[in-house]
Amino acid sequence: MPESPEVQALAEELGARLTGRALTGVDVVEFRIEKTRARPPESLVGERVTGVARHGKLVDLVFGSAGHLVVSLGRHGWARWAATADGSKASGVESGDPPPPTLATLSFGDADDVELTDAGDWVSLGVWVVDDPREVPAVAKLGPDPADPAFSRAEFDAAVVGRRKQSKAILQEQESLAGIGNAYSDEILHVAKASPVAHAASLDARALDALYAATVGVVRGAVDARRGVPIDRLKAEKVAAMRVHGRAGEPCPVCGDEVREFSFASTTAEYCPTCQTGGELLPLRPA
């Protein structure tokens, strides 16, 4: 799932190449991605991009007073430049795998076309055309963003302190903290040496300090690390930078213990028993 560091890099690259250019055509292959049927993406044809922003895990192509084209990448969505859409260069595709299908193409005249893709078994990509991005439900519900320089300890405490909910679940809850998903929540908890299944209400002052510092440090560090990376390489860069996420069976880079998997919601996540759970092994499957 795309998370804020990679989506920020995507938004910045799109902004650098598209700002000032007019949308000359739209080809929607999968009409289920259109969430505002009365205002389809082609209603913006002829309008110029005035900027590109990020809201949590969503991308916002701004067309001045004409409106916003807001793209939710969902679980498996991404964007790529059509000029590099082959098996070796398509964004988010491992070498040798076929590129994900294009669900819509945005054309910008002499600029490269932008293809919106979805690699999942079900369509998670979504596109809205709105006057205000807060008209998109997923944007309207967003909590404060740890990548924002203005993000404060008070906002973190309001989202976390005293809650009888697992710390990992809170980190991924977009209404509480925007932009964090499964991968970066694993990384944050590992840096903080916190159990992913411990309720936030059980954390003492020192543990909360560590979790706040890890949240800000991991997210902002990843944003800085991904900045300027071409969008077709962002997934590989993200995977390579992970300390524990996706590394079950490998040694923990801190203590050398084996990184383990455990069940979380509808997926799995990773942690280090020595660093995070006092040696306790979490269940890989629900009891």
UniProtKB/TrEMBL annotation:
Q: Which residues are in the Formamidopyrimidine-DNA glycosylase catalytic domain?
A: 2-123
Keyword Transcription: yes or no? no
Catalysed reactions, semicolon-separated: Hydrolysis of DNA containing ring-opened 7-methylguanine residues, releasing 2,6-diamino-4-hydroxy-5-(N-methyl)formamidopyrimidine
Cofactor(s) needed by this chain: Zn(2+)
Query: InterPro entries from the entry?
Result: FPG_cat, FPG_N, H2TH_FPG, Ribosomal_uS13-like_H2TH, Znf_DNA_glyclase/AP_lyase, Znf_FPG/IleRS
Pfam family for this entry, one: H2TH
Matching entries from SMART domains are given as:
Fapy_DNA_glyco, H2TH
Q: Which Gene3D superfamilies match?
A: 1.10.8.50, MutM-like, N-terminal
**UniProt keyword annotations, A-Z:** DNA damage, DNA repair, DNA-binding, Glycosidase, Hydrolase, Lyase, Metal-binding, Multifunctional enzyme, Zinc, Zinc-finger
**Ranges where the FPG-type domain occurs:** 243-277
Membership in a protein family? Belongs to the FPG family.
Q: Entry's PANTHER family?
A: FORMAMIDOPYRIMIDINE-DNA GLYCOSYLASE
Protein's UniProt name: DNA-formamidopyrimidine glycosylase family protein
What species was this sequence derived from? Agromyces lapidis
